[in-house]
Amino acid sequence: MARINSPAELEEFRKDIISKKDPNRPCIAVCTGTGCLALGAANVVAAFKEEIEKQKLQSKVDVVDIRETGCPGFCERGPIIVIYPEEICYLQVQPGDAKEIIFETILGKKIIDRLLYVDLTADKKVVHESEIPFYKNQKRLLLGNNIKIDPKSIDDYLALGGYSALVKALFHLTPEQVLELVKNSKLRGRGGAGFLTGVKWEFARRSPDKTKYVIVNADEGDPGAFMDRALLEGNPHAVLEGLIIGAYAIGSHEGYFYVRQEYPLAVKNIGIAIKQAEEYGFVGKNILGSGFDFTIKVHQGAGAFVCGEETALLMSLEGKPGEPRPRPPYPAVKGLWGKPTNINNVETWANVPLIIKNGSDFLTSIGTEGSKGTKIFSLVGKVNNTGLVEVPMGITLRDIIYKVGGGIPGGKKFKAVQTGGPSGGCIPEEFLDIQVDFDELAKVGAIMGSGGMIVMDEDTCMVDVARYFLNFLTDESCGKCTPCREGIRQMLKILTNISKGRGREGDIELLEELARTTGDASLCALGRTAPNPVLSTIRYFRDEYEAHIKDKRCPAYVCKELISYYIDPDKCQACMICLRKCPAEAIDGGKNRIHIIDQNKCTKCGTCFEVCPSRFGAVTRLSGEPVPPPFPEEKRTIVRKSKDK
Amino acid sequence: MNEMLLQIDGKEVKASEGMTILEAARSVGISIPTLCHHEKLNPYGACRICTVEVEAGGRTNFVPACIYPAASGLVVRTRSEKIDKTRKMILELMLSHAPDAPALKDLAKEYGADRDRFEKEPSFCILCGLCVRYCAEVKKKSAVGFIDRGPNREINFIPEIASKECWNCKECFPLCPTSYLQTAYHLTEALAFPSSSFLRTRLRGTPMLGA
Ligand SMILES: Cc1cc2nc3c(=O)[nH]c(=O)nc-3n(C[C@H](O)[C@H](O)[C@H](O)COP(=O)(O)O)c2cc1C
Question: Count of H helices and E strands in chain A?
């Protein structure tokens, strides 16, 4: 492919690509994002290819294209395929289904019912992707294209109008006008703090230095989060285009992608994208003949959570230990190698081409007063539709969890939703109707963070949740400053003690005091936000803390040291199921002999509780009360009244 | 040099560009406690005992005086109930590691810090980094460094360098605010058992080197 030297040449080339694509030609798009790959998508692709080869040999022409795409979000039901042009969506497709799909759907134009989404609420099957409730209630400005393109193909991106925002910026707008558009769009950073992107760009633009850097923060270290990963893997050119436009507005000629090495596919796809963009002349010297130069490097991070913090990221890029630097000076003034630097999150950059192409009103027309556009969340935990969801700002938590997420599995009760990653907060039922945006989440003690969303049901212990996140943060603290290193460590100790039944009067107050010091005096936002999981759980679930501390009781039956399993002798039918399943061999009993759990051997795994037939319901959980003494040996034999006697 | 005017504890203070709040305060005789600070070394901002309250642009923030640049119009408070509570807590956290360090005991008295508030885990080190930074910045040897992170962070001599450089220097010893025994211990260990200490450095490494 030769370099493209002008906007006119690009449009010519784009027309050419589009004209070569027959919109009616069938295409099977297979999600090969990380989630579906883990579920065997590669084998599905191979099966399709094999089947198509066979078809070609046996008969006619080739009948269908295969497109390996990025993640469309519905990971719960992967591997996912979408068949174009009809947009038929099949879920949980196995290699064994390939032949049938080719014959029935591609050649026979028939729908295979078995592979469709079943909408249980309406008791019907759904054929088209956009009609599945999971998708119907989203607004997928950024993720929507993932299933439509092969991320390794720049032509696919161009066919969808890619790089036209870049042309507009470089040839029809001054850097100041680009900046103005982004400012007017009120776009706020998606990486956590929600800082106004245009304002940040302006700081960097105004810094008096010839050398400036722009950086894509793709560290994404929150456990369970994979929004940025899906964008980079599935639509890398969108992020790249945003970055080039930003560089133009800021006056930077060098950029970096900082991607964690645990994201091999993201690293690979962004590398391919940059190479293609260089070949086409979208990156490099004299981009599209505009006179603007911009080069990009990819840097792989070693995967420390704190390296996502922008100043630690800079240290890491410079080859130093990833410890945050004090601010001020801010990166916009003194960043990478002392030069003005602008760092934005992957999702933030991906919004830029949309704003340039469609104008700032496009973004401001979506969302709330203070938060515009959409936000991608990774919806995980106790929710039916685990996956990536992109929703307009201002949607309620309830709609995300119930309409998009399909509610809580197993008929369990909702307890809390945790937003914002490890240093986010837990939000209880009473606030499910708040509008999701930067400010409303902060008001209830949580944060938007980068978009982690963990749903918890009634079987979740909130003390244990706080302990879990603090444990993560202890490990991930860089250890440089006292309040973060020592404060989190002491909070974790107290939480661990509480969950083991060693909590003491005054522990809650001490936690609050530690939280205050850690939150106020830490060097970076890791420490400053670390108290959130503790404070929010104390705020909304104080009674659970008190139950642990005062009654040595875990209301959710999670904290092992505080619970016991007990077989009610009046209900036990000596069926031997629990006895056989107990992995610790802690159950004594036999045929017609009432079972007893040996409390010394019991590991509290809960297997007996789960397997005891519900019509007996003999295994019970106890917490905060003593286990009744073992049933007397002589009464343990069950004498069954037989009908024929 | 640009002259700037800021307010510290109600006093108008002149400062020049490049000065920190700590320097500006000290220039008018206002004292702010420090532990990890040293005139000869670059500001570090790790111990946070010098935390002060800064008002700027309508917002109040807690910042470390030793590293925060003085700027025109800043309103700084070096003592308040909140600041004192914060310093007290920071001291208590440190005292669990170095309960008998004289520098900490003196400050503990002033701020009413309870040395027994937290369970003792005597490592004797509060990770102020004075030894590490002195060796790197003044002596340019980097014979001692940090290893590991979070609560596992500790100082460690690098045997190859230490065995050559340290016996005739030991200038870091008196800098240690807790007790230089700890430093000496590490040094001795490094010299006496280079392989074990070496191994530890290697095994635990510096995992945060994102390169
Ligand atoms: C501990 C910690 C981890 C962070 N991790 C990330 C991350 O993985 N990705 C990211 O974009 N921002 C992360 N941030 C936020 C960045 O510091 C920074 O605010 C962000 O990259 C700015 O981009 P934005 O304005 O587009 O949001 C993290 C912050 C902290 C304190």
Answer: 24, 19
